[in-house]
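Final report, Chapter 2: Outcomes

The project's central promise was a pipeline that accepts a single protein chain and returns its three-dimensional structure in a standardized token representation, suitable for archiving and comparison. That pipeline is now operational. To close this chapter, we reproduce one record exactly as it appears in the project archive, with the input sequence first and the structure output second.
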Amino acid sequence: MDQASVKAPLDVPADRRNTWTENYRLMTRNTGRLFLMAGDQKVEHLNDDFHGHGIDPEDGSPEHLFRIAAASPVGCFATQLGLIARYGANYPDIPYLVKLNSKSHLVKTAQRDPVSRQWQTMDQVAGFVQSSGLRIVGVGYTIYPGSEFEPEMLTEASRLINDAHRMGMVVVIWAYPRGKAVTREQDPHLVAGAAGVAACLGADFVKVNPPLSPEGNPDGHLLAEAVKAAGRTGVVCAGGHETTPDAFLSRLHEQIHEGGTVGCATGRNVHQRSLEEAISLCKAIHAVAIANETPREALRFFQKKH
């Protein structure tokens, strides 16, 4: 990626475009592709993802997330501001993305449609950026198209994107169709619609769940509609449940090269492993998502030690 190919959106003021460009280049490693390490599940899934069978015992501590992010070639580490405030001083070199809303999974859709509201104002985020001295490259926010609370979330998302851009920060929108009106969350056409909503909000990247065929099977080609619908908003897929490195890397390669996505956003597949294994897998993910290697080539990072 050359400097001329990186163009800040027009809602980024002229005096902040260099800042936005620097943040964008940092989190995409000068490639336009994104490897986002997601660490927001401590709210989204409570302790289900951090304790139990098959999960490394170290994952029970929030610091495990920071240790992985600090030692791995991730583009940015996304988590809540409270955790960044507690651990950031010990891990000052991580590029952080502040996740501005989160909710637990305890209230099911059958009880109430999902709603997730903004935790901090952008003024508070700006104050933290200034006082902490950390590299906060962007912010993230989840929307649930199809929820009866969709209007409130879209309004918040639109406003925080404009505020973030005015600060020179990059924005990633998590977009998951969900609610009683949604019968098939990972329908390719519906996933494409959610990606298009994120583009209309002005997001720089949108994180979606990978679409599934009517038979329930993943297929990289099914992402093409979403990538086209998102336009200049880059599409990345959620990593999903923990799986083998080979399967994960093959799926990621397919999403990028058959579906046209620009990287990945993964959490459980990384942090549920030991520190050594997590770092090795992050290096392999970086090789596929950022360095454009094949899964077989990328597995050298994992197989070398494991």
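Archive annotation: The domain at 3-303 is CATH 3.20.20.70 (TIM Barrel).
This record, like all others produced under the grant, will remain available to the consortium after the project formally closes.
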